Structure formats: structure tokens, C-alpha cells
């Protein structure tokens, strides 16, 4: 088995960190718990560190720095740079550079975590083996002008070590001496990094594998409520790939997107502004086009019972009528009323429901 590993291509620094932290989380952390038990302090510290670093990645690294979906006060930028570093996912400059390439070349060779190369590659393999030359940083000119970003980039390893390990250990020491400091290092530091990293890695792997594609089937990104829970709201990845400049990923009111709620709250506190939203019509039209495409594919695929074909054809006719109305209104430069938009959306959803009822919806992992 080991003879098949391309050792000459292994990124030893990253691999030893990823494997070393996983090993400690599975051995030293349980041994500590066996001897000293789990107290409320360690649980609280774990979750405080998990959410501080996790939201720094989703709010800061992803939606603020990589996509510029809103503007933030320097306090928010500094906080997300400090705690984002403690997620050990490298500097925001490198992260954003790779992430922008992912969006630009999704599912193709130049996508750093391309799902077409397999689930393992997209999840962690791309980090263990550095097959490509280092990124030229040619798509992050805007970030290079930000002195805070460049300061974090220059000192990333020190910042990461201090915030991820030294900080929780000091808090642990102040709470309960050396034993507590050791627990904080292992649970709030090491175990938290492992859990958080795999949650983040899921965005690149399972979010391109599990769920549905209501907005566009042009790329592999999918919407999944389960992944949204694991990734602090990033699981509505099909929407995100279609509308990457929207600060929301879970755009529907019932969708679980705590990152969106946090950014909205920051804006109400005066710490964020210029939140970018894609107009509702544009979103509904994308859903409409995708529903249309799916109905057409299912009808053209044949093999349907007479009743199924008739149901699909009826759904398609209704969608076509709505689309025609839309085009006419647009030509006449009429603003669509709220009621019309709701009608358009309901009709689109009804068409998709028809597909699901007939068992023709996208199956998970398809
Ligand atoms: Zn993105
Ligand atoms: Zn993606």
C-alpha cells in the first residue's frame, strides 16, 4: 500500500501537521480525558475557539476577503485575520488566491481542489501532495494593497501558533493551573483544529458531491442543508457558485446560514456595510431556467410512463407560459410586482416538485 504513495510529491510540512494533529486528537486528548475528566470549562473553550476560528474563515477568509461581498470595519478584519490564522488554513492571501482559482476553473484542471479528481483529492489530498507550481498570486491584487492582510501573510505561522495554541493554554492556566492548560492545549487547541479543518474541507469535497442543484447544473457545486450545518452555512454551495458576490449562501429565509446572520448583525452594529445581494428576480430566473432544463432533459430521456410524461409536459407548458409573460413584461420595461415574483417562484418550485415526485430529481451524490 505504502509503495503506491508518490513520496517525492508529498508536501511534508503540511502533511506532518495534518497527520500529527489528527494523531494527537485521537490519542493524547482521550488520554487526558481519561485521567482528568471533562469539565465545563474545556467544553466552553472548545466551542468558543471553534466558532471564533470557524466564523473567521466563513465571514472573513471567504465572504469578505475572497469574494468582497461586503465591507468591514478594521476591527472585524483584524479579528478574522487573527482567528482565521488559528484555523491553520494558511494566510488569507494564499487562501483567497486558491479560492478564486477554484471559482474560475471549477471542475477543471486549474481548480486547486477539483472534485473531478476524486473526493479524497478535493477534501485533503490537494494539501498532502503539492503537484502544481506555487500560485503566482496574480488574482489577489486588491488584497495585496491591504496592509493588515500583508502583515498576516508575512507572520502567518507565528500568528497561527500563538492564537491557536498559546492563547487557549494561557486561558487554561489562568483557570486551573498546568493541568487545565494542558487540557486547553489538547482540546481547545489541537482537537478543535482537526474538527474545524475537516468541517472546512467538506466545503471543497462534500459540497460538490451531496445535494441538489436548483440554480445551475453547469458545475458540480450543490445545495445541502446537512452540509450547511457542518459548515456554518456554506452548504448552499450551488447558490454560492452561481452568485458568488452575494453575502448570503442560504438565500431562503428558512435556510440555515449563521454566517449570513452574523454579517447582517455586524452591519446593524455598524461594523459592516455595503452588503451585496443579487436581485430576487435574477435568482428566481436562474431557478426557472434550471427547472426548464431539467424538465426538457427528463422528457427527452424517454422511458417515462404515459402519465409521467403528461405530468412533466403540463409542468413544462406552465413554465413556458410564465417565461413568456416574463419576457413580454421585460420588453415593456414593467417592474414585476411582488405577487408576480411569488407566482413565478411557486410555479418553478411546483415544476421541480413534479420531477422529485416522479423520482427524476437529482439523486444525492449523482
Ligand atoms: Zn467561494
Ligand atoms: Zn466550490
Structure description:
The protein has 366 residues and is mainly alpha-helical. It is 65% helix and 1% strand. The chain has 2 domains: 2-273, no CATH class; 280-357. It has helices spanning 12-26, 28-36, 40-66, 74-85, 92-104, 119-128, 141-144, 147-154, 156-204, 225-230, 237-242, 258-268, 280-301, 306-331, 338-357, and strands at 71-72, 272-273. A two-stranded antiparallel sheet has the order 1-2. The longest helix is centred in the middle third of the chain and has 49 residues, at 156-204. It starts with 11 loop residues before the first helix and ends in a 9-residue tail after the last helix. The mean pLDDT is 88. Bound molecules: zinc ion (ZN) (2 copies). One zinc ion (ZN) binds next to helix 3 and helix 5. One zinc ion binds at residues 102, 208, 221, 237, 241.
Short description:
The chain has 366 residues and is mostly helical. Helix content is 65%, strand content 1%. The longest helix has 49 residues, at 156-204.
Q: Give the total of domains.
A: 2
Largest sheet: 2 strands, antiparallel
Distance between the termini: 29 Å
What is the count of helical runs?
Answer: 15
Q: Assembly type of the shown chains?
A: single chain
| Outline type | elongated
Please mark out the parts with pLDDT under 50 across 5 or more consecutive residues, or reply none. none
Question: What structural category do the secondary elements indicate?
Answer: mainly alpha
Amino acid at each position: 500500500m505504502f509503495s503506491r504513495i508518490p513520496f517525492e510529491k508529498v508536501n511534508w510540512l503540511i502533511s506532518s501537521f495534518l497527520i500529527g494533529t489528527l494523531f494527537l486528537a485521537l490519542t493524547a486528548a482521550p488520554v487526558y480525558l481519561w485521567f482528568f475528566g471533562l469539565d465545563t470549562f474545556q467544553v466552553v473553550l472548545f466551542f468558543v475557539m471553534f466558532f471564533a476560528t470557524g466564523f473567521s474563515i466563513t465571514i472573513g477568509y471567504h465572504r469578505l476577503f475572497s469574494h468582497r461581498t461586503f465591507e468591514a470595519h478594521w476591527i472585524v478584519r483584524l479579528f478574522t485575520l487573527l482567528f482565521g490564522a488559528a484555523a491553520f488554513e494558511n494566510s488569507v492571501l494564499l487562501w483567497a488566491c486558491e479560492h478564486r482559482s477554484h471559482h474560475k476553473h471549477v471542475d477543471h484542471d486549474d481548480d486547486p481542489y477539483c472534485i473531478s479528481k476524486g473526493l479524497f483529492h478535493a477534501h485533503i489530498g490537494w494539501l498532502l501532495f503539492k503537484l502544481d507550481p506555487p500560485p503566482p498570486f496574480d488574482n489577489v491584487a486588491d488584497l495585496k494593497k491591504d496592509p493588515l492582510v500583508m502583515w498576516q501573510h508575512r507572520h502567518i505561522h507565528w500568528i497561527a501558533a500563538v492564537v491557536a495554541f498559546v492563547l487557549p493554554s494561557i486561558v487554561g492556566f489562568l483557570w486551573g493551573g498546568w493541568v487545565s492548560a494542558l487540557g486547553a492545549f489538547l482540546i481547545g487547541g489541537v482537537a478543535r483544529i482537526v474538527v474545524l479543518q475537516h468541517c472546512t474541507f467538506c466545503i471543497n469535497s462534500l459540497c460538490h458531491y451531496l445535494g441538489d442543484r436548483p440554480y445551475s447544473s453547469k458545475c458540480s457545486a450543490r445545495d445541502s442543508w446537512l452540509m450547511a450545518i457542518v459548515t456554518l452555512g456554506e452548504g448552499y454551495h450551488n447558490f454560492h457558485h452561481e452568485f458568488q458576490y452575494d453575502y448570503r449562501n442560504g438565500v431562503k429565509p428558512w435556510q440555515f446560514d449563521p454566517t449570513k446572520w452574523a454579517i447582517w448583525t455586524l452591519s446593524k452594529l455598524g461594523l459592516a456595510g455595503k452588503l451585496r445581494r443579487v436581485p430576487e428576480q435574477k435568482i428566481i430566473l436562474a431557478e426557472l431556467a434550471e427547472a426548464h432544463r431539467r424538465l426538457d432533459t427528463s422528457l427527452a430521456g424517454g422511458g417515462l410512463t404515459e402519465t409521467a410524461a403528461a405530468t412533466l409536459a403540463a409542468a413544462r407548458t406552465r413554465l413556458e407560459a410564465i417565461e413568456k409573460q416574463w419576457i413580454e413584461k421585460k420588453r415593456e420595461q414593467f417592474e414585476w410586482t411582488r405577487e408576480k415574483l411569488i407566482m413565478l417562484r411557486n410555479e418553478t418550485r411546483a415544476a421541480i416538485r413534479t420531477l422529485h415526485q416522479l423520482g427524476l430529481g437529482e439523486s444525492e451524490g449523482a
